[in-house]
Amino acid sequence: GGPRQGVRQPRGMNTSLALIQQLTHSLAPPVCVLCGAPGQAGSEPWGLDFCRHCEEACPRALATACGGELSLRLSGCDAISVLFIYRPPVDRLITQLKFSLDPVPARVLAMLFARELKDVRPQFIVPMPLHPLRLRERGFNQCAEIARHLAPRVKVPVAPHLLLRLRHTQAQSGLAAAQRRVNVL
Predict the structure, then answer these.
(1) 173 Cβ partners below 8 Å, 6+ apart?
(2) Global pTM?
(3) What pLDDT, on a 0 to 100 scale, did the predictor assign at position 62?
(4) What whole-number distance in Å separates Cα of residue 45 and Cα of residue 31?
């Protein structure tokens, strides 16, 4: 018995979830999407495909009010929640999501975000839109994928049509940091 070696069970996990995880982890144990180490048991049957080491290496951001540290000014917005700062290893996780067509990073980010939002109930989730040309190039919107996995976990609807991308900008991945800042203005 017991879960596969390396997958840590959270303290206070209910017995039925622990039994389900024993079964699911024997079939397909969670594996870190970044480094391949054993993932975490988490609070869902299949666990979290992210190891504790990689999670702790991700630079945390704080939820900030509109117009605060993020310099965003959205009409009617009370607050914006940001999970991580875009620095290593978060950049690798996002790059993997955007360019590998692998759904696991979207699910991992949604699970981590849901855990952060446990005491907050937003009205809705608004994924950042892609310009229609970029959407055709990529075939999917990575933010919408995260939102799709996040919405049922926090029991909040996704409102994808509240924002509209009007300008087709150059791909950020090919630009230096200074160029990226100018590119999105």
Answers:
(1) 95, 98, 99
(2) 0.79
(3) 62
(4) 14
